[in-house]
Amino acid sequence: MVRNESAVVVLVSKEDLMILKKLCKTLNKDLETLLHEALSLGIKKLRLEKAIELYVNGKASLWGAAELAGLDYRSFEEELRRRNIKFRYPGDDF
Questions:
Q1: Buried b vs exposed e over 42-66: b needs ≥16 C-beta within 10 Å?
Q2: pLDDT, tens only, 26-80
Q3: Which of 7, 21, 78, 80 is the most buried (most CB within 10 A)?
Q4: Is the model's pLDDT at 91 over the cut of 70?
Q5: Residues 6+ apart with CB under 8 A from 24
């Protein structure tokens, strides 16, 4: 099986490594799996937060921000509503 992955070396603090090892034990997962899941969740959160930031600051349209967040238009709208962020409409800046 061909995997579409690349190896990356990351240095983590001793404290973070201890936390990760405890999580591995608690969740009954190996370190590689846990790190992969944590990175995936972190990337999703980062995409969403940055997309919202760009939208709120007028640097991305609703469509563009939704795309950056990896969400469809409606899901992004729902996320904005959940966070009580008002929609910007064309011409709101004037």
A1: eeeeebbeebbebbeeeebebeebb
A2: 999 999 999 999 999 999 999 999 999 999 999 999 999 999 999 999 999 999 9
A3: 80
A4: no
A5: 30, 31, 34
**Structure-block tokens of residue 58:** 């007028």
Dihedral angle over CA of 13, 14, 18, 21, nearest 10? 70
Three-class secondary structure of residue 70 per DSSP: coil
Question: What is this structure's pTM?
Answer: 0.79
d(CA 56, CA 65): 10
Name the phi and psi angles at 67, rounded to 5: -65, -45
Read off the tokens for 45: 């959160």
Q: Spell out the domain ranges in the chain.
A: 14-82
